[in-house]
Amino acid sequence: MAAPLQNAYTNKRVLDRYLSLEQPKNVILATYIWIDGSGENVRGKTRTLDNTFKDVSELPIWNFDGSSTDQAIGKNSDVYLYPCAIYKDPFLRGDNILVLCDTYKYNEKPTETNHRKSCLEVMKRAEKHVPWFGLEQEYTLLDQDRHPFGWPKMGFPGPQGPYYCGVGTNKVFGRDIVEAHYKACLYAGVKICGTNAEVMPSQWEFQVGPCVGITMGDDLWIARYILHRVAEDFGVVVTLDPKPMPGNWNGTGAHTNFSTEATRAENGIIEIEKAIDKLSKQHLRHIKAYDPKEGKDNERRLTGLHETSSIHDFSAGVANRGCSIRIPRQVAADKKGYLEDRRPSSNCDPYSVSEVLVRTICLDE
Ligand code: ADP
Ligand code: MN
Ligand code: MN
Ligand code: MN
Q1: In the predicted model, is pLDDT for residue 113 greater than 70?
Q2: Model pTM?
Q3: For 276, how many CA atoms within 13 A lie in the half-sphere containing its CB?
Q4: Which of these, 281, 278, 256, 270, lies nearest to 339 by C-alpha position?
Q5: In CATH, 6-113 is 3.10.20.70
Q6: Which of the residue ranges 7-11, 26-30, 204-208, 269-273 would you say has the lowest mean pLDDT?
Q7: Rounded Cα gap, residues 296 and 132, in angstroms
Q8: Among 130, 135, 136, which is best to mutate for testing ligand 1, by the most ligand atoms less than 8 A from CB?
């Protein structure tokens, strides 16, 4: 085997000896996971808990040093972790769990990057519309030197064309990471529904959905955690940057597919058209909610080229991948179903995206 590139490489197989050690029956390991001050990166830390809780409401509130995550100042650094949802831990297995948390300041107000709280409130108010979401999470694999994984170190791979849904050496890079992630998500309880290689080499996508209300944001954030964590095992970096390579290379998005009871019913296409009309009047508000820098990140991606629309204009069309909103061909044929909002950036917060869609389309606010 060639010498590994990684400078902190360990032989991952040695861990199996220790993972197979019998764990005391009365305890589990709980990894608490949260979104940090960047609004894009996840953090996690692990503790032992008695194996007596029945559901998430019985898990203890915990805290962390927010001055090390851009969520507090050193003199007043404790930030609270409120458990929100439990997943099975695909890394430590057994009864061990991943615990998705949201974050609260010393005064019990949500931190600046806690968008879950307001999203949940909106989802509760819109419950009767039964909003479903399906999110297509694109991402790019990088080497530890932050050069795209598998690209020649000097120069570039051949132009885009053979890579999307590609098969074969020199067409796709890192499929083992993608498949490990898929299996780990299924095991954890994430509603992952597909995956494919993307247009730029070493760019991939997985899809989550359809999920009802808040569960889309929850499942997507855990799927992102699992992705970073799996990639760690392979010594590869995952970036959610919306335009990792400038120039003639596709950017990275998080297309968000949305439907309600009304759009899924017979002749729901009329409701889809009404929804598009509402979206057309709120373009700027949506752009602000679709990346952590209120449009600044997406500016590099939404150029009007590379299967995107311009960040400055709103547009919609059937089967058109150069629009803000695409009505899938099958939806037009069935006259019911869902719409695809192609604007959200790969590093968007799915809580912010789903919240603003429901506010605009269901609650008219
Ligand atoms: P694309 O053709 O844009 O690449 P994908 O197959 O990657 O589409 O993704 C389709 C997404 O749409 C999936 O996440 C799926 O869960 C979601 N989806 C399917 N039906 C619905 C629906 N009725 N409402 C919301 N989302 C849906
Ligand atoms: Mn897709
Ligand atoms: Mn895609
Ligand atoms: Mn899509």
Answers
A1: yes
A2: 0.97
A3: 23
A4: 256
A5: yes
A6: 7-11
A7: 28
A8: 136
Q: CB of 338 closer than 6 A to ligand 1?
A: yes
Q: Are 211 and 223 in contact (CB under 8 A)?
A: no
pLDDT for res 80: 95
Q: How many Å lie between the centroid of ligand 4 and the Cα of residue 355?
A: 19
Atom in ligand 1 nearest the alpha carbon of residue 193: 16
What confidence tens digit (pLDDT) does each residue in 15-68 have? Answer: 999 999 999 999 999 999 999 999 999 999 999 999 999 999 999 999 988 999
Which atom of ligand 1 is closest in space to residue 210's alpha carbon? 16
Report the 10 Å Cβ neighbour count for 9: 11
* Residue 359 structure tokens: 């506010």
For the structural domain made of 123-361, what CATH number should be given?
3.30.590.10
DSSP 59-108: SPPEEEEGGGTTSSBTTB-EEEEEEEEEEE-TTT-TT-EEEEEEEE-TTS
Residue 140 has pLDDT above 90, yes or no: yes
Q: Which ligand is the nearest neighbour of the Cα of 207?
A: 1
**Ligand 1, atom 13: closest residue by C-alpha:** 134
Nearest ligand to the C-alpha atom of residue 250:
3
**With 50 as the cut, is the pLDDT of residue 2 above it?**
no
Which residue stretches of the chain are H helix?
15-19, 116-125, 175-188, 215-234, 261-264, 269-280, 283-289, 296-299, 329-334, 350-361
Nearest CA to 132 out of 363, 359, 360, 358 is that of: 358
Please indicate whether residue 263, judged by its CB atom, sits closer than 6 Å to ligand 1: no
| Extents of the domains making up the chain | 6-113, 123-361
Which atom of ligand 1 is nearest the CA belonging to 255? 3
The confidence score (pLDDT) of residue 1 equals 41
